[in-house]
Amino acid sequence: MGERRAGLVLSYLALRRSVGVIGLALPLTLAVGGLVVDGSGLHPTISDYYYSGMRDVLVGSLCAMAVFLASYRYDRPDAVAGTVAGLAAVGVALFPSTPAGASGGVDPVGVVHLICAATFFLTLAWFCLALFTRTHPDLPPTARKRQRNAVYRVCGATILISVALAAVTGALPDDGWMAAVHPVFYLESLAVIAFGVAWFVKGETILTD
Q1: pLDDT band (50, 70, 90) for residue 89
Q2: What are the tens digits of pLDDT across the range 8-50?
Q3: What is the C-alpha separation between 208 and 120, in angstroms, rounded?
Q4: What is the DSSP string of 140-175?
Q5: Cα separation of 202 and 16, whole Å?
């Protein structure tokens, strides 16, 4: 029984680290890969890489993340949140964003993409702010646990603020400055990296007891 429990703990740690690695690596991989494969600069958003030579990397990373999240069964609330985030990640991958510069009214597929992306990020923030910060009701948190909780809260707040700013920025009129600065890409990247850091810490790669 003890060996089985130890094996489950190691499996969950590996799962958390895997999610963290994807989150940390994805923005840089897309940016550098797009430059190498397409010879282009940054795209306006992470989702816009669907229309580049990095599409398979984007879709593959999202699907891998979806599998890891949907497989996360640490506790019932975690399982529910993981399933929601996993399904949302699949939605982001399978329903691409509206191409930049597209016209012709509302794009239903693009709307589904936005809903899935919002659900994905909000669920990841919920992981950071509510699920990862839980402590044992009968045991006081260790100094390391308090440090980890501080990291989780910063990551959760970073996700929420970055996504909110990205939504506001994306709704602003584009006079050419967005194409030059790419603020939405950087804000989305910050949110993805923040969630990657949180899962990396949860995987006890750093700040271990």
Answers
A1: very high
A2: 444 767 777 888 888 899 999 999 999 998 887 888 899 999 9
A3: 27
A4: PPPHHHHHHHHHHHHHHHHHHHHHHHHHHHHHS--S
A5: 6
Answer yes or no: are the C-beta atoms of 198 and 8 closer than 8 Å.
no
Task: Return the sign of the alpha-carbon dihedral for residues 12, 113, 184, 36.
Answer: positive
Largest CA-CA distance found in the chain, in angstroms, rounded: 63
Tokens of 106: 């509302």
Distance between CA atoms of residues 75 and 136, nearest Å = 13
pLDDT tens figures, 151-186: 999 999 999 999 999 999 888 776 676 667 889 999
Q: How far apart are CA 117 and CA 47, in angstroms?
A: 9
